[in-house]
TrEMBL record:
Keywords, in A-Z order: Mitochondrion, Ribonucleoprotein, Ribosomal protein
Family annotation (Pfam families): PDCD9
Annotated compartments: Mitochondrion
Ranges for region Disordered: 115-144
GO biological process: translation
Statement: the UniProt record of this protein carries the keyword Cytoplasm: no
GO cellular component, one term: mitochondrial large ribosomal subunit
Protein name as annotated: RT30 protein
Length: 356
């Protein structure tokens, strides 16, 4: 009986099949597409087209060479927007403003940071700091070289009294016109008081020596928050961002060339932001269409591009007596909170935009 024997496939100088490892073949390079990619139209009403327009807009803003060009592109498209007034007569406006700006309101003053001099060996103890003002010069002489210079509160009180007497007693002013009381005495008094105290405190705070004081500046900020459906016009049915604009006019503001340290870390959880589902027109807020502006009170080339302090004067139409006569005592503090939330948000957000 014949037996079939397999022939060995091994020749001299050659190896077949499993005798050697297969050579690694490099993957073929992807061929260039013959046609351009299929993308959504710029003018379509679809969500893909809206995403493409948004991505193209972000690329243009990021590719801008200067801050001025970025701000110009950011506010180039003008649409109807809600105008937010920091000093408003609307009821419970502070909760609405917190929702628009994503701001948490924490009552009370921020915690006082421990000065660096308190950690030094020559620092004064808290018991010594509570000494009467008459012992001020002696305490200043006894303090170590690392302690901060003594602040004479009596001298500050004297400067404030001089400014008040100058505006209310020494000058022979006539009776103010209707709703012009702020321009008669409080406005000039605050201007003189702030400029005098800032000049006096320059020796204790060198940052004030390089600061810039603005009188009746203009602060603007434009931003988006949420989405809405266009109801009227040729763009009916499209989904647009809800646009807001704050046009603030503080009485005075101090700008410094160095950023101030933060009171609390950004990662800290201070509370929940109130969420209001109603349209801003229920506050009421009204829509206008005009220039989208981001401005901190100075141009981008100004070295003093960081905010220090703002001073506002409440108009006569929002005085405390008016709310008391209308039985709206609970709305007195609401006006102050709404003014602080809107003004601080507009100023700090515009400063962040100036940084790129």
């Amino acid at each position: 009986m014949a037996v079939c024997r397999g022939r060995r496939l091994l020749w001299h100088g050659r190896c077949w099949y499993s005798q050697t490892e297969s050579a690694v073949v490099p993957p073929p390079s992807p061929a260039e597409p013959l046609y351009p990619p299929v993308v959504a139209s710029f003018t379509a009403k679809s969500k893909a087209a809206q995403r493409r327009r948004l991505e193209h807009f972000k690329q243009r803003v990021h590719a801008a060479a200067s801050i001025e060009e970025k701000l110009r592109l950011y506010g180039q498209l003008q649409r109807p927007k809600y105008t937010v007034y920091p000093q408003t007569f609307a009821l419970n406006a502070d909760r609405w403003y917190q929702s628009f700006t994503k701001t948490v309101f924490v009552p009370g003053l921020p915690p006082r940071a421990a000065p660096a001099a308190a950690k030094s060996p020559g620092a004064v103890t808290p018991e010594a700091a509570k000494a009467p003002e008459s012992a001020g010069p002696q305490a200043a002489k006894a303090a170590g070289p690392g302690a901060a210079p003594y602040l004479d509160m009596g001298q500050l009180r004297s400067l404030a009294c001089d400014a008040l007497l100058q505006e209310s007693f020494y000058q022979n002013k006539k009776r103010p016109a209707l709703y012009r009381d702020q321009e008669h005495t409080p406005g000039p008094f605050l201007t003189q008081l702030v400029s005098t105290l800032a000049a006096f405190l320059c020796s204790r705070n060198p940052l004030l020596a390089a600061s810039s004081l603005d009188l009746n500046p203009e602060v603007n900020y434009y931003w988006h928050h949420g989405e809405e459906v266009v109801v009227h016009g040729h763009r009916k049915g499209r989904v647009d961002p809800v646009r807001f604009q704050i046009d603030d006019k503080p009485h005075l503001q101090l700008r410094v060339p160095k950023q101030l340290p933060e009171f609390v870390p950004l990662e800290s959880n201070l509370g929940d932001v109130p969420v209001i589902e109603h349209k801003p027109s229920k506050l009421p807020l009204f829509k206008k269409q005009y220039e989208n502006k981001v401005f901190i009170g100075s141009k981008t080339a100004d070295p003093c591009c960081y905010g220090h302090t703002q001073f506002h004067l409440i108009p006569d139409k929002l005085k405390r007596e008016r709310f008391v006569r209308a039985n709206l005592e609970d709305q007195i503090e609401v006006v102050y909170r709404a003014n602080g939330i809107a003004s601080l948000f507009a100023w700090t957000a515009a400063q962040a935009m100036y940084q790129g």
